[in-house]
């Protein structure tokens, strides 16, 4: 999945998952919930 550079650093963190919902791309991290990001 294409991820913009703005949220790529969050997507590389351990435990993070890239999810696409309703046309937005989210980065969700269960290990550290502060590491969330949204694109679009």
Give an account of the 3D structure.
By secondary structure, this protein is α+β, with helices and mostly antiparallel strands. 18% of the residues lie in helices and 38% in strands. The protein has one domain. It is built from one helix and three strands, in the order αβββ. Strands 1-2-3 form a three-stranded antiparallel beta sheet, covered by helices on one side. Strand 1 and strand 2 form a beta hairpin. The longest helix has 7 residues. It holds the Pfam family Ribosomal_L36. InterPro entries: Ribosomal_bL36 (IPR000473), Ribosomal_bL36_sp (IPR035977), Ribosomal_L36_bact (IPR047621). Belongs to the bacterial ribosomal protein bL36 family.
- Please identify the structural class as seen in this structure: alpha+beta
Shape: globular
Amino- and carboxy-terminal Cα gap: 14 Å
Radius of gyration: 9 Å
Tell me the number of structural domains.
Answer: 1
The proportion of residues forming helix, as a percent range, comes to 10-25%
Number of helices in the DSSP assignment: 1
Main sheet properties: 3 strands, antiparallel
Secondary-structure element pattern, one letter each: HEEE
Strand share of the residues? 35-45%
Query: What's the rounded overall pLDDT mean?
Result: 86
Give the quaternary arrangement of the chains: single chain
Q: Total number of β-strand segments?
A: 3
- Strands across the major sheet, in which order? 1-2-3
The residue ranges in which pLDDT falls below 50 over 5 or more consecutive positions are none
């Amino acid at each position: 999945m294409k991820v913009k550079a703005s949220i790529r650093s969050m997507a590389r963190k351990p435990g993070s998952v890239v999810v696409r919902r309703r046309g937005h791309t989210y980065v969700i991290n269960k290990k550290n919930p502060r590491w969330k990001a949204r694109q679009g």
